[in-house]
Write a structure and sequence with these properties.
The chain has about 110 residues and is α+β, with helices and mostly antiparallel strands. The protein has one domain (about 20-110). About 40% of the residues lie in helices and about 20% in strands.
Length: about 110
Amino acid sequence: MTSEDMSELGAEAWDDPTPNPRRDWSEIANQLRERPGEWLRIFEHGPTSTANAIRQGDVKAVRPVDGFQVTTRNNVSHPRKTCSLYLRYVPPDMADQLARQERAEQMRKEVE
């Protein structure tokens, strides 16, 4: 079958699929705990479903109820939903202080 024939079928090319990366969420959680309050970029242009799973508590090692926070940037919805995923760990004794700092920073940005 020629590439022209493939195009007519709506296909691009014969190719082996790249493997999905496996993440060691427990190790990521350990690394985040060593640097509380700091954001770690997990991936760029990855599936938004991963961010949603973390937000919903489906990834046991980095559940929000345990102090892990997730945010995304560069969200794209076409041709497939992707984002840059960031995680951080905020221990309970640090949460209020960090929230105050972030509010103050946001207010400074709004004034500028």
